[in-house]
């Protein structure tokens, strides 16, 4: 998703006005403006953050878990930690995609709200699943 967003951004970059909205209030109205190269910075942060989260999901042993990691539950916790990280990356990508779309002048408030909901579900759902699998018997 970040690569598609960056490709769209690069395709339309030349047609953007010199000044673009850089911040939006709760109503969706732009309340701050800046040079158009700001969309490139946002896209760079989006790509770096997404790549970092996906890479981090490959090392669940380094996560801080809400329950003690034991020999019996380690693999289940690591699987849930990796899953939560991937869904967090997806939610953040949806939010960033909506932000870029808003900067391009498209109405993307619902996309940003959906991204926030995915992010919250990933975090709270991931923690809940970790707590459940920590005590689950091995199959």
Description:
There is one protein chain. Helix content is 63%, strand content 9%. It is elongated, with a radius of gyration of 18 Å. α1 (2-12) packs antiparallel against α2, α2 (38-56) packs antiparallel against α3 and α3 (74-103) packs antiparallel against α4 (109-135). The chain has 4 helices and 2 strands; from the N terminus they run αββααα. It is mostly helical and 139 residues long. A hairpin with a 5-residue loop joins β1 and β2.
For the largest beta-sheet, the strand count, sense and barrel status come to: 2 strands, antiparallel
Strand content: 5-15%
Radius of gyration (CA) equals 18 Å
Tell me the structural class: mainly alpha
| β-strand number | 2
What kind of assembly state do the chains in view correspond to?
A: single chain
Q: What is the general shape?
A: elongated
Q: What is the end-to-end distance?
A: 35 Å
The average pLDDT value, as a whole number, equals 87
Strand order of the largest sheet: 1-2
Helix fraction by DSSP (H/I, runs of at least 4): 55-70%
Task: Determine the number of helices (DSSP H or I, runs of at least 4 residues).
Answer: 4
The low-confidence runs, each spanning 5 or more residues with pLDDT under 50, are none
**SSE run:** HEEHHH
């Amino acid at each position: 998703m970040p690569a598609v967003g960056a490709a769209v951004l690069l395709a339309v970059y030349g047609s953007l006005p010199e000044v673009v909205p850089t911040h939006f209030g709760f109503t969706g109205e732009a309340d701050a403006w800046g040079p158009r190269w700001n969309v490139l910075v946002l896209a760079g942060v989006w790509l770096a953050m997404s790549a970092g989260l996906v890479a981090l999901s490959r090392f669940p042993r380094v996560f801080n878990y809400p329950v003690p990691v034991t020999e019996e539950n380690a693999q289940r916790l690591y699987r849930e930690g990796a899953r939560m990280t991937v869904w967090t990356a997806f939610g953040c990508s949806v939010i960033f995609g909506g932000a870029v779309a808003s900067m391009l002048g498209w109405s993307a408030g619902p996309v940003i709200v959906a991204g926030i909901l995915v992010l919250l579900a990933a975090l709270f759902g991931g923690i809940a699943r970790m707590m459940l699998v920590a005590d689950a018997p091995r199959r």
